C-alpha cells in the first residue's frame, strides 16, 4: 500500500515538473518567436504605454479643469 502511494506521488511530481518545463519552454519559444518576427515590438509596446498614460493624465487634467470652471 505504501509503495503504491509512493509511486503515485512520484508520478505526480514527474508530471508536474514536466508540465512546468513545457510551460516555461513554450513561453520562451513564443517570446523569441515574437521578437524574431517583430523586433520593434518592445519599443512599440513601450511607446503605446507611454502614449496611453499621457492621454490618461491629459484627460484627468481636463476633467479637473472642467469641474473648476463649472463651480
Number of strands: 0
Largest beta-sheet characterization: none
N/C terminus separation: 79 Å
Shape: elongated
Q: Beta-strand level of the residues, as a percent range?
A: under 5%
Radius of gyration: 26 Å
Low-pLDDT sequence parts: none
Helix content: over 70%
Q: Tell me the count of domains.
A: 2
- How many helix segments? 2
Keywords: Membrane, Transmembrane, Transmembrane helix
Transmembrane segments: 7-27, 33-52
Notable characteristics:
single chain; 71 residues; 2 domains; 0% strand; elongated; membrane; transmembrane; transmembrane helix
Fold and architecture overview:
This protein has 71 residues and is mostly helical. It folds into 2 domains: 1-38; 40-71. It is built from 2 helices and no strands. The chain has helices at 2-37, 41-70. The radius of gyration is 26 Å and the shape is elongated. The relative contact order is 0.05.
